[in-house]
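User: My advisor asked me to double-check a structure prediction for Inner membrane protein CbrB before group meeting. I don't want to rely on an old file, so could you generate it fresh from this sequence?
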Amino acid sequence: MTKTRRIIHHACWFALLGPHIGGLVTLAKEMQSTTLTPGQFLLEILSILPIFIVLTWVIGGVPALLTGIAMACLPPRIYACVWQRVLICGAIGAAIASIVWLVFISAMDEAFIWMSVGPGLMAGMMMGWIVPSLPFRGETTQTYAVITQGPDR
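Assistant: Sure, here is a fresh prediction for Inner membrane protein CbrB from the sequence you gave:
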């Protein structure tokens, strides 16, 4: 896969899935800190689920996109080693999420760690692990002619 194709592939997958992984981390933290029972909390989240999903994607889309681009530009030696790639993508995700949070929100309070760094770290690590194996990498193993005509006779 060429470098440009890898950048496009990773950026698209990160922007599509990354914010939702970060949203799950945010939900888990909020579930721990609320006084509601887990059932009540889930009912409350389900009542605002469409808005929550859209806001998660809008807020986390830019950091996820930038993290995907940064991951695609890793040196080949680091990119080839799964555990190094996962750790570095997590660190990049946390750093980019916190920088974007500070640029757009311009405030730092106690929720800062859970609203930017935690989701960015977890999403970066998860996506760094699964994105290289996701489809649409541009690697084809068979051509259309071989599939439709069968093997040579």
